[in-house]
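$ ./design --mode recover --in tokens.txt
reading tokens...
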């Protein structure tokens, strides 16, 4: 019987979710309906918002932060991290720009979370 801490609101209810054979998932410990929805989703199809950094072409700003615009199914996170590790962004770059659109058909985009200027010229 999994025990979860609900992250849907600041209360942080301690939830217990139990799935009996042939029955619905029974959730206890929630103080609001959001807790029940959260626990069911965690049991059936967990998702996470992913934050990471991607390399740039600038020695002054070698990395730029990125994140998913919506929670991504957990089974796709490892692949996303591997794909991001292979990316290199050419500066300048604007906050909110989409780096990867509709990642693997999930409907989730990866966006830049910082604006960076063009790389500085190399010193003589």
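writing sequence...
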């Amino acid at each position: 019987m999994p025990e979860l801490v609900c992250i849907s609101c600041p209360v942080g209810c301690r939830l217990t979710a139990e799935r009996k054979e042939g029955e619905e998932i029974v959730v206890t410990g929630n103080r609001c309906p959001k807790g029940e929805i959260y626990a069911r989703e965690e049991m059936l199809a967990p998702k996470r918002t992913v934050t990471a950094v991607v390399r740039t072409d600038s020695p002054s700003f070698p990395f730029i932060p990125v994140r998913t615009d919506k929670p991504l199914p957990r089974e796709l996170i490892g692949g996303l991290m591997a794909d991001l590790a292979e990316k290199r962004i050419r500066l300048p770059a604007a906050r909110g720009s989409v780096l990867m659109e509709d990642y693997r058909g999930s409907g989730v985009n990866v966006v830049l979370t910082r604006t960076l200027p063009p790389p500085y010229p190399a010193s003589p």
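exit 0
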